[in-house]
Write a structure and sequence with these properties.
Strand content: 15-25%
Number of domains: 2
CATH architecture of the largest domain: 2-Layer Sandwich
Largest sheet: 5 strands, mixed
Number of helices: 7
CATH topology of the largest domain: 60s Ribosomal Protein L30, Chain: A
Order of helices and strands: EHEHEEHEHEEEHEHEEEHE
Structural class: alpha+beta
Mean pLDDT: 78
Strand order of the largest sheet: 1-3-4-2-5
CATH class of the largest domain: Alpha Beta
Low-confidence stretches: 1-23, 101-115, 245-250
Distance between the termini: 38 Å
Helix content: 25-40%
């Protein structure tokens, strides 16, 4: 059975679903895909009772509904999933996620959760700009190296902005940022048909641009806005699965 939950603190809802005791501290993420998968996809592989959530990159995450008291118990399911065609399944430490949710980290803020893939890269931009800075170029050099070392990989490119300005202007700005990233990689010898661009503008922030917890008007969060002015990058393997750890030296 495939159950959908909305994305309002979606990761935590998925991770804590049916986990009513502190003892159950581990859950397994079965898979993550850039597109929604039908329930038959999992059913045909003999994987049942799946919870699905969607993060702010638009990535669909599929979790086993069962939680576990120990990591060793979760590892049993991990091995079973690998045998059924899900070698990239991962164990989520719920206690660690609870702790992270209590911090001011821009990736884990109360009421808005963001899942950063282990293999994800990000390029950040100055306010209102889409030109690449030296740090961004260094990141993209690493991305190009990974793509050259893994010729069957493709790359998802997600363009984002903060929420200053009109939504229409921010879509245009996010588009230019994503194109700047793609064009730089093309110049580094990566074929354009290995890269796929999605543009979200201001609609999918990784962190709140304004803190409204103390007043309706809210307090501006400039450090968070910096995190939102980004292009996020995800590697996909030849089967379309998100690559976790990638190591170009292997």
């Amino acid at each position: 059975m495939l159950r959908h939950i909305c994305f309002c603190c979606a990761l935590m809802s998925a991770l804590l679903f049916s986990s009513e005791t502190q003892a159950q501290d581990f859950r397994v993420q079965v898979a993550a895909y850039p597109d929604s998968m039908p329930s038959a996809y999992f059913r045909d592989r003999q994987v049942k009772d799946i919870i699905v959530s969607r993060d702010q990159l638009g990535i669909y995450r599929y979790f086993a509904s069962k939680t576990f008291n120990t990591r060793e118990e979760a590892e049993v399911l991990l091995r079973e999933l690998a045998a059924k065609g899900f070698p990239n399944s991962t164990i989520i430490d719920l206690a660690e996620q609870r702790l992270l949710c209590g911090t001011d980290c821009p990736y884990f803020r109360p009421g808005r959760m963001f899942v950063k893939e282990e293999g994800e890269k990000a390029v950040f931009f100055d306010f209102g700009r889409y030109s690449l800075n030296p740090e961004g170029k260094t990141t993209l050099d690493e991305v190009a190296q990974t793509l050259r070392a893994n010729p069957k990989y493709t790359l998802q490119i997600f363009g984002h902005t903060d929420a200053i300005g009109s939504a229409e202007a921010n879509v245009k700005l996010a588009t230019n940022r994503a194109r700047a990233v793609r064009n730089y990689l093309v110049e580094k010898g990566i074929r354009a048909d290995r890269m796929f661009v999605k543009v979200f503008g201001e609609s999918r922030p990784v962190a709140d641009n304004v803190d409204r917890s103390s007043s309706d008007e809210g307090v501006d969060l400039p450090e968070n806005r910096k995190m939102n002015r980004r292009v996020a990058l995800l590697f996909l393997d030849e089967s379309g699965k998100i690559v976790g750890k990638t190591n170009a030296s292997k």
